Amino acid sequence: MDRFDGFEGMLLTDQVRSTGAILANTSKGYRRARFTVAHELGHFLMERHELTSDGGFTCRAQDMRETRDGRQHVRQESQANQFAAELLAPTYLVTPLLSPEPDLRDAQRMRDHLDISLEVCVRRMIGGRDEVLAAVWSFKGEVRYLVKGSGFPYVTVSRGDRLPPISAAYRAVQNAQPGFTEFAEAHPLSWTSRTDVDLYEQTRMSNNGHAVTLLWADIPDDDDDPDRPELSVPTFR
Ligand SMILES: [Zn+2]
User: Fold this and answer.
1) Is 231 a member of any domain?
2) Ligand 1 mean position to 10 CA, how many Å?
3) Of 59, 71, 121, 183, which one has the fewest beta carbons inside 10 Å?
4) C-beta atoms surrounding 59 within 10 Å
5) Nearest residue to 60 via CA among 2, 12, 7
6) 160 CA distance to ligand 1 centroid (A)?
7) How remote is the CA of residue 125 from the centroid of ligand 1, in Å?
8) From ligand 1's centre to the CA of 27, what distance in Å?
9) 13 and 95 in one domain?
C-alpha cells in the first residue's frame, strides 16, 4: 500500500492508550511483519512511551533496528525492539538452538524454528552470546548497515561503503555462491582500527545479492593478565 511508503509499522492510539490498532507493512514478508506487530505492541504496553505523531506511533525500518540508549525517541524504539525480540525469540527457545561457538547457521535455524526474519535472529545471536560479535549486512558488495554487540571495537565501514577488499566477505560476494563460508581469521584492520584483536569472519550469501557477515573479535583483556607486571607508581620529589 502506498500509504506505507517509508514506514514499517504504525500504532494508532492516544497517550493513555484507550484503544489501539496496529498496521504493519507486509511488503517485505510475513516474518518481518511479525516483528513489526510485536514492536508496535511494545509501544502500546509501555505506557511511558510518548506518541511520535498525532494519531500514535509511526516507525521506520531503522527504528526496528535501533539498539542505542539515547534521547527519548531512540530509547523507546530500542525498548520496543527489545520487547519484540523477547516476545518472539525468548531466551529459553533461543539457547537450545545455539552451537557451542558462533555460527550464522544457528541464525538460519532460529529463523525456521521461530518464524522470524534472519536479520532479527542474527541480532538476537549477537546480543545473546558471550562472545564479542558484530554483523554487517550488504547488498551486491555495498554495506547496508551494521550491528555491534557490546564491547565490539569501532567498525571502520559504514552504510554505502564497499566491503573491504581484503576481507573474506568480499571474496564470498565476488564468488556469489549462495550458502555459508566457514569462520576464517581476518586481518583486524580490514574491519576495525585496532591491531591488537584477533578477528574472525563468516558470511552467509543469498542468491539475490544480499549477504550478512558475522564478525567475532577476541579482545585482549590486559587488565586481567596475570603475567603482566605491576605498573610502578611514579613518585615525584
Ligand atoms: Zn517504534
Assistant:
1) no
2) 8
3) 71
4) 25
5) 7
6) 24
7) 21
8) 18
9) no
**Number of structural domains in the chain:** 2
In this predicted structure, the answer to whether residue 192 has a pLDDT above a threshold of 50 is yes
Q: How far is the CA of 73 from the centre of ligand 1 (A)?
A: 9
**Are 112 and 77 within one domain?**
no
Same domain flag for 18 and 121 = no
Rounded to two decimals, what is the model's pTM? Answer: 0.86
Whether residue 150 sits in one domain with residue 43: no
Examine the pLDDT at 226 and tell me if it is beyond 80.
Answer: no
Residue range of the domain that includes 138: 91-222
126 Cα to the center of ligand 1, angstroms: 21
Phi, psi of 191 (to 5 degrees): -125, -25
On whether both 30 and 95 belong to a single domain, the answer is no
How far does residue 198's CA lie from ligand 1's centre (Å)? 36
Q: State the distance from the centre of ligand 1 to the C-alpha of 72, rounded, in angstroms.
A: 12
Please say whether the beta carbons of 117 and 29 come within 8 A: yes
* CA–CA dist 11, 21 (Å, integer): 6
